[in-house]
From TrEMBL:
Gene: cbiM
Recorded metabolic or biological pathway in which this protein acts: Cofactor biosynthesis; adenosylcobalamin biosynthesis
Listed HAMAP family: CbiM (MF_01462)
UniProt keyword annotations, A-Z: Cell membrane, Cobalamin biosynthesis, Cobalt, Cobalt transport, Ion transport, Membrane, Transmembrane, Transmembrane helix, Transport
Keyword Iron: no
Gene Ontology CC: one annotated term: ATP-binding cassette (ABC) transporter complex
Full protein name: Putative cobalt transport protein CbiM
Complexes and interactors: Forms an energy-coupling factor (ECF) transporter complex composed of an ATP-binding protein (A component, CbiO), a transmembrane protein (T component, CbiQ) and 2 possible substrate-capture proteins (S components, CbiM and CbiN) of unknown stoichimetry.
GO MF term set: cobalt ion transmembrane transporter activity
BP GO terms, sorted: cobalamin biosynthetic process
Segments traversing the membrane: 12-29, 41-58, 78-101, 108-127, 133-156, 177-201
Family label: Belongs to the CbiM family.
Species of the source: Methanohalarchaeum thermophilum
Length: 225
């Protein structure tokens, strides 16, 4: 992650675009709702976008056709939930694909699905379970970031394995190969990203920045953002 421009066969590029579009569209709706009803947390939206952009632009060499890097999605997961995170990730990935040669347009659907949708959904679920168990907001941020990061790379590995199954062993053998290579760099990166998210959340909380009420609840049904 990001999967490079033109690396995936056209069939898979189209499939991941089609799967990703509804999530991004609902994320746009949620962002519009925030702008209309919760103007006091607009600065957090801007901070989250900047955080995702900066963190996800930090590339480390990994498997052929991809790279390892933090995702930055832990912060918007905590503040806004998975759907707004999907929209934020899409915008960041689009900009990076157009202007930084990081990812691309044909692979934007695949990269959004892994970094902006499935990774954040699992990170959000883990965060809510942790909060429900009494884990603090700051520590919950670590959990959200760590889980989202690892799931992002699991999904990226699955996308690559689906597109390039092993001649003997098929999808599962290819998935195992991609996961084993990614794990070398991604597990420590996930830990570092979790610490970074904790630090930002603590700083914002200490300085009285308005935190959405949904970020403070541990009830799984209480933050369907």
């Amino acid at each position: 992650m990001h999967i490079a421009e033109g690396f995936l066969p056209l069939k898979w590029s189209l499939i991941w675009w089609i799967v990703s579009i509804p999530f991004v569209a609902y994320g746009i709706y949620k962002v519009k709702k925030i702008n209309q009803e919760k103007s006091e947390i607009k600065p957090l939206l801007a901070i989250s976008i900047a955080f995702v952009f900066i963190m996800s632009a930090m590339k480390f060499p990994s498997v052929t056709g991809s790279c390892s890097h933090p995702t930055g999605t832990g912060l918007p997961i905590v503040f806004f939930g998975p759907f707004v995170t999907a929209f934020i990730s899409f915008i960041v990935l689009l900009f990076q694909g157009l202007f930084l040669a990081h990812g691309g347009i044909t692979t934007l659907g695949a990269n959004t699905l892994s970094m902006g949708i499935i990774g954040p959904i699992f990170g959000w679920i883990a965060y809510k379970i942790a909060r429900n168990a009494g884990v603090s907001l700051v520590s919950g941020g670590f959990i959200a970031a760590f889980v989202a990061d690892l799931m992002t790379y699991f999904v990226t590995s699955a996308e690559l394995a689906a597109a390039f199954p092993a001649s003997k062993g098929g999808f599962l053998l290819s998935l195992k190969a991609f996961l084993s290579i990614f794990a070398v760099t991604q597990i420590p990166i996930a830990v570092i990203e979790g610490v970074a998210v904790m630090t930002v959340i603590k700083y914002l909380s200490d300085y009285g920045v308005s935190i959405p009420s949904s970020a403070k609840t541990g009830i799984l049904s209480g933050s369907g953002s």
